[in-house]
Each structure stands twice: as C-alpha cells, then as structure tokens.
Amino acid sequence: MVIGSKIVSDVAAASFIPHSDESPLLREWLMFSSQFYAELSKIHHDTGVEIRKGREFVDEARRQKRPWYADCVFNMTPCIPQTDSTQPGAQDEVVYLPPDKKAGWSFETFLIEPRFFIPWLRRQLEELHVTFKKELVKDLRSLHEYDVVVNCTGLGSKELAKDSGMAPIVGQILLLQHSGLDQWVRDSSIKGSIGYVYPQRNTVVVGGTKSNEPNKDAEALKAQLKTKGATLQPLISHAPEIGLNSGQRPGRDGFRVEIDKLSLEEHTNGLLNAPLIIHN
User: What is the pLDDT of residue 269?
Assistant: First the structure.
C-alpha cells in the first residue's frame, strides 16, 4: 500500500450523518457502512467507534418529511417544540427543541474517533500482511508493477487523476476537555452554515466552518466556535480549551467512482500490462 505524506482525517469530528441528497447507490453504501460500524462499535475501545444519541436541527422545509437516511441510523424520532404539550409518549422519552429552533430529529448514530480508528485500520491490514510504503506519486502510470490501483487520494486527485471538479473545503474545529457530555448536537437549520458539538472519549469537538480559506485569526475563531457550540450545548460553556485544529477535506459536486485501465504504451512500448485503476 502506497500512502501519502499528509493525513488530515485525524482532526475530523467524524459523525455518521449523510450530507448529500438521496440516491439508490448512496443508500446502498450507507446501509453497508451502518452494518460495518455496528460490528465495530461492539469493540469500540479498540476501534474508536461508538453509538451515541443526539439531535440534529433542520429547517422547516425538512420538518414534515422523515429523513431519507433514517433506516441507516437508529431510533429516529422528531424533536418536539417546548410549547407543544399534546404529543403522546412518556415525559422522559420526549426530546424537546430549543426555543429558537423550528424542527429537528433525535436519533442514535456512529461517532468515529479517527485517532483510534485509523491506527486500528492499519493494524487490520498489517495482520493480513499488507505492507506500507510512503512515496510521492506524480503519475498513476508509475504504479505499473501493481495489478490493481485504488486511487483514494482525495484532493490529490485534482492533479493525479485530472479531476477538475475537486476543490478543498476548509474545516476548523475547537477541541475542549471533556465535561461529562454524552450526547451530540448538530445544527443544519441555516443554509450555508453548520454547527456541532460531538463528545469523544477524552475530548469534545466543537465546529464548524465550511469555507475555501481558513480563518487565520485564532482568538476570534475560538470565540466564534465556543459561542456557537455553547448555544447548542450550554454544558460546554466553561469547559477548558485544548486548542484549534484545521484540515482540508475533498469537495466536489457528486461522488466519483470509476474503473479504467490506463494505457502504458507510450511509456513502455506496450511491454507492460496496464494496472486496473479504481477511482474512489
């Protein structure tokens, strides 16, 4: 396995909540992934995968229709406005909305802590005798010694796979010391904005940002994220800060999964077999 020089996934909040519109292929992927993570959650101290309950606030347009990914998570129910006392159900089972939110859903989903999950994945591959090699790859055709090449280089695919649709999305988060929080909260109710508070094993991740350029004013960004997070979850208001983290995640309109076979004739006079390239 050839790995790149930088991995930014270890700063991600990594919640199992789809951000895309429904498609049959995406639904199939999610169902498979849900089953996979469910198995891993049974040994979460090794994998960093846990099932946690939380709330996602949405806009009024998504209020009436049950989210399409409801079958991929667990125990989804609508959040109830605090002014509505007519809803059935035991008092301790009702999940209320904050006064400033119009709609939301309560459900259980997977939180994946990358700093445990990524090393666990590597150990599984090493047990299968997969070897790791770190090198700079400038052309996929240089990997002609392999029968199959899986290209999952993310932003690197812009040049490596001539994927002009790939663009970086800057994510910045505030890391706090754990304050006894056991449920997550996510705000998707304002278009173009996102906010979340995700408890991890020893820390709490507060976000988020979604832009093309990072905010370089650290103190202003800390205050912005802390205020946004405390509005969603007051329990973090006085939690000690650990620091800011930032990373670039790959963004494009729609997903790309392709299989092709690159021609090596111009470089090898046709003497070598071309590897099968899987773009993911």
Answer: 34
* 94-98 LR contacts (CB < 8 Å, sep 24+): 95/55, 97/57, 98/57, 98/232
Per-residue confidence band for 273, with pLDDT thresholds at 50, 70 and 90: very low
Tokens of 182: 């056991």
Tell me the pLDDT band of 33, cut-offs 50, 70 and 90. Answer: very high
Beta strands in the chain (DSSP E): 2-3, 49-58, 74-78, 103-112, 133-134, 148-151, 167-177, 184-187, 195-199, 203-207, 241-251, 258-261, 276-279
Q: Which residues pair with 151 in a beta bridge?
A: 279
Asked if 222 and 135 touch (Cβ cutoff 8 Å), the reply is: no
- pLDDT for 12 beyond 90: no
Alpha-carbon span 59 to 241, nearest angstrom: 30
Burial annotation 138-168 (CB, 10 A radius, 16+ → b, else e): eebbebbeeeebebebbbbbbebbebeebeb
Instruction: Evaluate whether 114 touches 8 at the Cβ level (below 8 Å).
Output: no
Contact 108, 52 (CB under 8 A): yes
pTM: 0.82
Q: Are 37 and 117 in contact (CB under 8 A)?
A: no
**Residues paired with 279 in a beta bridge:** 151, 258
Report CA dihedral (227, 231, 234, 237) to the nearest 10 degrees.
0
pLDDT, tens only, 166-189: 888 778 889 999 878 999 999 988
* Tokens (6 digits) for 81: 């406005």
pLDDT above 60 for 3: no
